[in-house]
């Protein structure tokens, strides 16, 4: 289980997280929604230890994320970054098999390549993509390669940072369906951040609404249309009028 | 604050800012050095950087040395003729190139080519979250990105300096024998007889120090790049400028240490 308890984080005078608390159960797919600049990405980065919170406690299965063996801790995670974050200097298959070519999960080169091609196939890409470089791929293909990299080492926990940003509606639907299928098939715990409501409905078991650095609402995805929280209602309906200021 | 104190406050702020950066660069370089001997090692990355930093810098360093050697011969001949000392051209070209111009110009040319390239590459990796991605893939960016570049530059630059020395002396030889009527054999004999081993070794040591400086400044500014294209552009400029100034400052200190201590 991932537990964030009263997490605070500020950058200079800007207080991004202001006492965020959230529990994500094992095997659950939780989606954090919220407007731009509300701290969704910072929240993910705090869990991964990429950003150190100013105060509060973050644990994964009871272990403080700031202590213990970092490599063993990170080996449990896969992450799909917003822009893909593929390594430009490496061909696609080496991007996907990056973790399988180094460290404790290292495999022989041929085996790593075979796994990479299998993962590429899983996300709907043909084997001939394996030897291309990321710059030769479209945005949607880069997202799929990023997804293949996130699942390559069969992680227990997968983070998705704005998985459909910048994609057309059809490709967004494809990526949403892939994420849902893969998370279900692997039995992984998933934490996704997005402001795309189609993604929320496709991916989430539970939804958490982040606003002004705290979780305003948390509940099953089936309840987002009936919940009476005014912040959630405004976000789900996309209304300009409401408690969330349109200009932030 | 009184208007009279504003200039002092500005100087104070700038000084503190500069000291903070010096401290950060020193800590960064120290951390990188401490990782050189600790596993995991990335030999493939090191070989790739040796190719990028060393091999691909050969043309620019070679051409710089060739033209500098030629120009130096002409200048020494013209200057020496004022007191009938034209004959010392081979010796002064050799010592000038080997002790000073070879390492300094080589270092500056590599700073322009390599520090800029490193800062731009790492800066772009930072703003596109590739460095965060490395961390999530259990790979320490300092080990994977910085250490191979520092090692490659520190190994490559002395070799580039040695090649540059030879080409620079050849440039002087070429101009002296074709334009200034020097005897080929005598020119070479005077050069070889005059140079001492320490002249060459000191230049190579300078090269290694300059290589280290180039890579550290490129990596530091790239890793600490600001957001967007402007941030990467500023990181690139800062890397080249700071590496160049540090090379010139280090050159003075090393010359003082080697030849005047």
Verbal overview:
The complex is a heterodimer of chains A (248) and B (261). Chain A has helices spanning 40-48, 70-74, 92-96, 109-122, 139-151, 169-186, 197-203, 230-237; strands at residues 2-11, 14-24, 29-33, 55-60, 63-64, 77-80, 157-161, 189-194, 206-211, 214-220. By secondary structure, chain A is α/β, with parallel strands linked by helices. Chain A has a 6-stranded mixed β-sheet with strand order 6-7-8-3-9-10, with helices on both faces. Chain A has a 4-stranded antiparallel β-sheet with strand order 2-1-4-5, with helices on one face. The longest helix of chain A is centred in the C-terminal third of the chain and has 18 residues, at 169-186. Chain A is globular and about 55 Å long. The model of chain A has no long low-confidence stretch (mean pLDDT 90). By secondary structure, chain B is an all-alpha fold. Chain B is built from 9 helices and no strands. Chain B has helices at residues 6-36, 43-54, 58-80, 89-127, 130-136, 141-179, 184-194, 197-223, 228-259. Chain B is globular, with a radius of gyration of 22 Å. The model of chain B has no long low-confidence stretch (mean pLDDT 94). Chain A binds chain B through residues 45, 48-50, 70-71, 74-75, 77-79, 81-83, 85-88, 98-99, 102-103, 149, and chain B through 40, 124-125, 128-130, 132-133, 135-139.
């Amino acid at each position: 289980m991932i537990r964030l308890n009263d997490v605070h984080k500020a950058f200079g005078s800007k207080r991004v997280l202001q006492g965020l608390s959230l529990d994500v159960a094992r095997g659950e797919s939780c989606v954090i929604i919220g407007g731009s600049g509300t701290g969704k990405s910072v929240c993910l980065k705090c869990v991964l230890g990429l950003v150190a919170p100013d105060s509060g406690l973050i644990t994964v299965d009871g272990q403080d994320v700031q202590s213990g063996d970092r490599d063993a801790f990170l080996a449990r995670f896969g992450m799909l970054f917003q822009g893909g974050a593929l390594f430009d200097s490496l061909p696609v298959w080496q991007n996907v098999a990056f973790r399988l070519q180094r460290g404790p999960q290292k495999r022989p080169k041929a085996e790593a390549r075979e796994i990479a091609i299998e993962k590429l196939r899983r996300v709907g890409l043909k084997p001939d993509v394996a030897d291309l470089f990321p710059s030769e791929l479209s945005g949607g293909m880069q997202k799929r390669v990023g997804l293949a990299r996130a699942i390559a080492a069969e992680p227990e926990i997968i983070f998705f940072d704005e998985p459909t940003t910048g994609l057309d509606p059809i490709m967004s639907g494809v990526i949403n369906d892939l994420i849902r299928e893969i998370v279900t098939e692997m039995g992984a715990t998933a934490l996704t951040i997005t402001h795309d409501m189609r993604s929320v409905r496709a991916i989430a078991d539970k939804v958490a609404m982040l606003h002004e650095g705290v979780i305003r609402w948390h509940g099953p995805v089936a309840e987002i249309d009936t919940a009476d929280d005014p912040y959630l209602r405004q976000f789900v309906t996309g209304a300009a009028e409401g408690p969330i200021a349109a200009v932030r | 604050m009184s208007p009279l104190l504003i200039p002092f406050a500005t100087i104070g702020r700038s000084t503190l800012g500069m000291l903070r950066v010096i401290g950060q660069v020193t800590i960064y370089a120290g951390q990188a050095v401490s990782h050189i001997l600790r596993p995991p090692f990335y030999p493939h990355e090191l070989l790739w950087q040796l190719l990028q930093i060393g091999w691909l810098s050969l043309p620019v360093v070679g051409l710089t040395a060739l033209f500098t050697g030629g120009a130096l011969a002409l200048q020494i001949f013209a200057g020496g003729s004022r007191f009938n000392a034209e004959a010392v051209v081979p010796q002064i070209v050799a010592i000038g190139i080997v002790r000073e111009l070879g390492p300094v110009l080589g270092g500056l040319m590599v700073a322009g080519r390599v520090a800029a390239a490193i800062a731009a590459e790492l800066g772009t990796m930072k703003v596109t979250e590739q460095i965060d991605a490395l961390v999530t893939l259990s790979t320490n960016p300092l080990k994977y990105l910085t250490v191979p570049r520092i090692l490659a530059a520190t190994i490559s630059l002395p070799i580039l300096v040695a090649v540059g020395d030879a080409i620079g002396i050849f440039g002087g030889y070429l101009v002296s024998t074709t334009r200034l009527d020097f005897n080929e054999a005598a020119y070479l004999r005077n050069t070889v007889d005059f140079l001492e081993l320490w002249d060459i070794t000191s230049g190579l040591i300078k090269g290694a120090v300059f290589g280290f400086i180039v890579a550290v400044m490129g990596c530091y500014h790239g890793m600490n790049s600001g957001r967007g294209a402007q941030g990467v552009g500023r990181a690139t400029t800062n890397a080249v400028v700071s590496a160049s100034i540090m090379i010139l400052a280090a050159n003075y200190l090393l010359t003082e240490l080697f030849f005047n201590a």
